[in-house]
Design goal:
about 25% helix, five-stranded antiparallel β-sheet, 2 domains, Alkaline Phosphatase, subunit A, alpha+beta, about 270 residues, three-stranded parallel β-sheet
Length: about 270
Amino acid sequence: MFQDKGYDTAFIYGGRGYFDNMNGFFSGNGYRTVDRNDFEAGEISFENAWGVADEDLYRKALKEADRTHRSGRPFFFHIMTTSNHRPYTYPEGKIDIPPGSGREGAVKYTDYALRVFMGLAQAKPWYSNTLFVLVADHCAGSAGKVGLDQTQYHIPLFLFSPGRIVPGEIDKRCSQIDIAPTLLALLNIGYESHFFGMNMRAPDFQPRALIANYQKLGLLEEDNHLAILSPGKKIDLQVEDRLTPLVSDSLMAQELMAYYQGADYILNHRLNRW
């Protein structure tokens, strides 16, 4: 949709994009990719096994944004940071927690680098016409003693555009799949799509979240009732730390199966292709 509007669409990553097939995935979905191989020696002040420091990644993204802006095109950049991963190392002297001492330092450095990035962005001619989206991909862990621990899937989402978005808070339960429809609505971009998500700012938005790990697929409703599909066609209802069997013909079980089996059917039959 962004390319149809003339946008430069790029995935910008400080590591090597062959990890997890990210370059293949993003390039196959319409992005040009910028990763560690595209950084020049003078653009790197620090790196570890995951890739370059957040500050270096952000400076690279700013250069890409300036170049695209000079060409007269708008841009949609998907920037992925990696500092909040073991071994939790980052440049010396940036914050008051020594590098490599744990997650708390990595999170604080991530926050520091983001502040530096936003400060540099404010001086750019494209800043006042840009919507910034800050979101996590996951929490530190997802393991739980029973079923799916929903607290491990609670991530932040900030939509920031001074003078264009009125400050406020959306306290509805939503999912990562709702970000794209919400973003396009905020930009007033009309589109046709196969999104499973919805505009979370719409009056008819239905709060729910889809959470999963490598074995369990869950649907979390507004009342904190969590329906879970597990191997062996097992269906459970989790309320707090209690699991009880859920009959397959119940409304919640049917909705749960419809989400995941519907998505599987659409992908396998390529019905999401134009």
